[in-house]
Amino acid sequence: MALTATDLFNDATTREIGGIGPDQVSAIVSDLVGVQQMLSAADPQINNLTDLHTHVIINQLNEEIASVELANSPTGTLVLGTNLGQYVGRAINDIHRDIIDIAQGDAGVQAIFNPTPLPGLNTPATPFLDNATQTTFVTQWIQDSNHLGQMATTIENNGFQGDIAGLVQQIQTFETNSNAFDQSQGGLWSARFWNEFRSDGTTGTAANALIDGLQTHNAGEVNAAVSQLAANSADVAGNNLMADGGSYASVVAAAQATAVTPNPTPTSPPSTPPGGTPDPGSPPPGDGGNHLVTDLIALLQGGGQNSAAAVVADLQQLVQAAGGGHNNGLAALLGDLQTAAGPAAQTQNGQPATNASSGPEHNPAGDPGLAPAVGADPAGHHVHEHQFHHMWG
User: Fold this and answer.
1) Closest CA to 114 of 30, 187, 6
2) pLDDT digits (tens, 9 = 90+) for 264-315
3) Out of 75, 110, 117, 388, which residue is the most buried by the measure of CB atoms under 10 Å away?
4) Rg of the Cα trace of the chain?
5) Residues 134/56, Cβ–Cβ less than 8 Å
């Protein structure tokens, strides 16, 4: 009977409990690589929270594998670019326990991976007392974990209309800063928390899922990432204390209560070179009443047939808005201008003249499907599921 991912992980657990001596490294690494490969094949795409939990496990295994491989190296040897000092064993313990906690907290994950739980600890884990620098970072990280999710939810609820590119850039910056800070700390802090903050930890996995969901319009992936980022911030808040001994609970509550919305879809005005004549290599920038005055001025300044075509496009929209009939002055004026404009009003680069900037994506103020302006009420909420708690060894 072929071994399963669960079998391999349980074998690694048994070997690690016995001690990671040089004679055990290759066997443990082989087990963990096998688990990673099987889970990757079983769950290739994130579409829901169970998928995301599985991918968090897959990525955290990178950290555990690297730590096991270097468990017997001289103190100070960098593990994935981080100096864990004497705490490589703590890092392995924390990651392994966290993976078990994730699986035990999600019945969907257990359908493909159900590792045996470890015995409980004799004494509760002591929260880690952050220093001033760590307190500042964690406070901002908690806020960002929740606020980025709020903005993504708003864009999703608006039919993925909004400044997705701008939000993606913010998420990438958040992930990069989180990874860099953890790597800079090293020692016990990184050993205990790098599977939370790193790019190959929970933060990076959820952030990348959020980016992918926004870019591919995958609502399930976005919802999962938003939920995981919020849950991860609550998890860290429960396992750390501020430099003054205070709790981060109020930071989490404030981050969840503060309404943060994304920027609306950015618009780009038509390019007009000096002299007021639109670029002849571009389609006429007509946009109904929004650009009629500008296009008329350009025409009067000697814009020629291209400017006339832009005015015609503007008037076509106004005629349509007025009812599209033939018994109004706008229709008559449009006919005169079409005659005066000649071929340029009829075609543009061999194609029927179009209104290049008249789509809904260029009219955020008038399209209820676009993201609201900053300061509007938030759309959506966060569901805190599966808040995994560390079991420090």
Assistant:
1) 6
2) 877 655 444 444 444 444 443 344 444 565 666 666 656 566 566 666 666 6
3) 388
4) 29
5) no
Q: Which residues contact 249 (CB under 8 A, 6 or more apart)?
A: 237, 238
Tokens of 233: 């911030």
Specify the pTM. Answer: 0.69
The β-bridge relationship of strands 240-241 and 128-129 is: parallel
Buried b (16+ CB within 10 A) or exposed e, 363-372: bbeeeeebbb
| Structure-token match 């190296």, residue found | 73
- Euclidean distance between CA atoms 88 and 388, whole angstroms: 22
